[in-house]
């Protein structure tokens, strides 16, 4: 299953929330992203059927290994690109917003080249 940008955003959000709390629910994801319950429910259903997320009986969301891989990749791109843009003089809010758009479309090759060029870790 090929993920759209929105699916990647949901996975990234679940990853971020799971770093802050032990139990992540769909309602937490909706509040964080500013989306309605029906929208989140549909997206979680698609991610579950795609093998990216599992849902416990109590409604807890857990990323599968593939879900973690995708979420970690997107989150790394987001944080790295935000830092690069800020170091280039872009304000934090704009850098984060632009990085959020860029993280979904940049190729692995270009992202690795940026990492090699700037030498951040």
The major sheet is characterized as: 2 strands, antiparallel
Structural domains: how many: 2
Mean pLDDT: 93
Annotation, overall tally of beta strands: 2
Strand neighbour order, sheet with most strands:
1-2
- Name the overall outline: elongated
CATH superfamily of the largest domain: Winged helix-like DNA-binding domain superfamily/Winged helix DNA-binding domain
Helix content: 55-70%
DSSP strand (E) fraction?
A: under 5%
What structural class should be given to the helix and strand makeup? Answer: mainly alpha
Unreliably modeled segments: none
The CATH first-level class of the largest domain comes to Mainly Alpha
Distance between the termini: 31 Å
SSE succession: HHHEEHHH
- At CATH level 2, the architecture of the largest domain is Orthogonal Bundle
What is CATH's topology name of the largest domain? Arc Repressor Mutant, subunit A
Could you characterize what this model shows?
- The protein is mainly α and 121 residues long.
- It folds into 2 domains: 65 residues, Arc Repressor Mutant, subunit A; 46 residues, Orthogonal Bundle (Diphtheria Toxin Repressor, domain 2), CATH 1.10.60.
- 68% of the residues lie in helices and 5% in strands.
- The protein is built from 6 helices and 2 strands; from the N terminus they run αααββααα.
- A two-stranded antiparallel sheet has the order 1-2.
- A hairpin with a 5-residue loop joins β1 and β2.
- It is elongated and about 45 Å long.
- The mean pLDDT is 93.
How are the SSEs placed, and which strands pair?
Layout: H1 5-20, H2 26-33, H3 37-49, E1 53-55, E2 61-63, H4 65-87, H5 92-102, H6 108-118
Helix pairs in contact: 1-2, 1-3, 1-4, 2-3, 4-5
């Amino acid at each position: 299953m090929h993920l759209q940008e929105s699916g990647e955003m949901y996975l990234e959000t679940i990853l971020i929330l799971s770093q802050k709390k032990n139990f992540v629910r769909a309602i937490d994801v909706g509040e964080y992203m500013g989306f309605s319950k029906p929208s989140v429910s549909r997206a979680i259903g698609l991610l579950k059927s795609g093998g990216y997320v599992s849902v416990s009986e109590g409604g807890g969301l857990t990323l599968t290994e593939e879900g973690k891989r995708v979420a970690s990749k997107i989150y790394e791109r987001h944080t790295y690109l935000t830092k690069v843009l800020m170091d280039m003089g872009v304000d934090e809010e704009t850098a984060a917003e632009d990085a959020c758009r860029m993280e979904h479309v940049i190729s692995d090759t270009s992202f690795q080249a940026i990492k090699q060029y700037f030498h951040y870790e």
